[in-house]
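Appendix B: a complete holo record

For completeness, this appendix reproduces one full record from the ligand-bound portion of the collection. The bound molecule is flavin mononucleotide. The inputs are the chain sequence and the ligand SMILES; the output is the full three-dimensional arrangement of the complex, encoded as structure tokens. No fields have been trimmed.
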Amino acid sequence: MSVFSIVWDVFAIIILVLLMMALVVVVWMYIADVRQTQHTIKRNYPVIGRFRYIFEHLGQFFRQYFYAMDREEMPFNRAQRSWVYRAAKKVDGTLAFGSTVNTHQPCTVLFVAHPFPTLTEDSASASLVTVGPYCREPYTTDAFFNISAMSFGAISRPAVQALSHGAAKSGCWLNTGEGGLSPYHLEGGCDLVFQIGSAKYGVRDGQGHLDDARLKSIAEHAQVKMVEIKISQGAKPGKGGILPAVKVTEEIASTRGIPVGEDSISPNGHPDIRNVDQLLDRIQHIRELTGKPVGFKLVVGGTSFFDDMCAAIVHRGAREAAPDFISLDSGDGGTGAAPQSLLDHAGLNIRETLPLVIDKLKEYDLKGRISVIASGKLITPVDVAWALCVGADFVVSARGPMFALGCIQAMQCNKNTCPTGITTHDPSLQKGLDPALKADRVANYVLSMEQEVGVIAHSCGVREARELSRRHARIVTELGQSVPMDEFYSKAAEQNPVFRRPD
Ligand SMILES: Cc1cc2nc3c(=O)[nH]c(=O)nc-3n(C[C@H](O)[C@H](O)[C@H](O)COP(=O)(O)O)c2cc1C
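The structure of the chain with flavin mononucleotide bound, as generated:
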């Protein structure tokens, strides 16, 4: 018998065994499917019905890579993501042939190109803004694009490390998110905004109340520049932070001050802040305690909240009583985990609320006192320039920097299975995320953003990004023609009873 025929026989036996095993598995699946009562499709179409679940899962990947057009995916389309990826990798950002944007589409933003754009030699770097001018330690920065809140817990250790170093390299701030302050936030040496969520993670006492001593010691870190009270988050207004038990590791539990391996669910609001007066009291208390600028974050829901708040501030005195900043999040903001109903349908969009809130603050003469920070899918230079034109002092983003970290929009932040290591605590998935390399990517992204918003400003004939105003942009209406941004928003405000002053 030749060697060839022995190998052939062995091969044939292996194939036969595998076929037999496959047959046994199919028979086993068949019996299991017809006997179960949970899934109609599997019961009616045993074995073959299983392909539905496989294809449903694979469909999201196929759509992303093969079928979805450049500008049709949600939450972020390929064109948006590609801009961030190119910026983060510092590869050629130019495109060829022409725009793929349909500029007749209503709400498209068109910048008012000046016939004599600002020459490079006449351009300037972004001007400085001081937040909280009346507190003991005001915060002054020129960075108009910064990293929004993402808690340690929702995102992984290497992701926080990369963001911390990346923020330091690019000179922007990093918001800690509601999961407390960890050594990884401090590691890169960047400026930090410390966020207090409704569970007061990291600054809570045994009963979950704010522990002044803990907050004071956190605020004593020189890197902590401001304190933000999270009233609500765009993706889930009326729902607190949700961190599934699988993500509550020992380290995360100790940073938050909670038990290991149990779901970490924050209350759906602050038990100690139930009205405007309590909010202003809290802000004043924390500002006195820490000496640093204090503000709050919320998504606007269309109540008379802003009138009530502004009237109360004016009554108490803007210098002492006003929040130093307001972070306005968008109803379509991102999250680590949220119920679909809130994710999809609760809270107004930043495109609607930013102009209305800015105008409301101007109406009460508070715009100069309260800085406005805008967020919600503002991840490309056009989005950021839009917000600056409207009147925002700062823009922050969470998912933009996530793309810079390598996020592929796998939409698995609520599980422990993020394939890019950003929102998982599984070491085997985290190993692909090199904090040193990704810190450079984050820094490149932030710096490219600043640079390209500057390019838009120069095209509009002003020297730097912060000189952009409403006269530098136009908005396309339903007729397919554009009108000046100012006119567009005043008309929208007139028609919007949500923000009309109560009689
Ligand atoms: C993974 C993840 C975690 C987040 N964690 C927080 C948080 O702890 N606190 C908070 O106020 N917002 C949190 N957010 C919301 C963002 O800070 C931001 O407001 C929102 O995503 C809108 O910005 P974007 O569109 O640039 O992502 C989180 C978002 C993501 C994607």
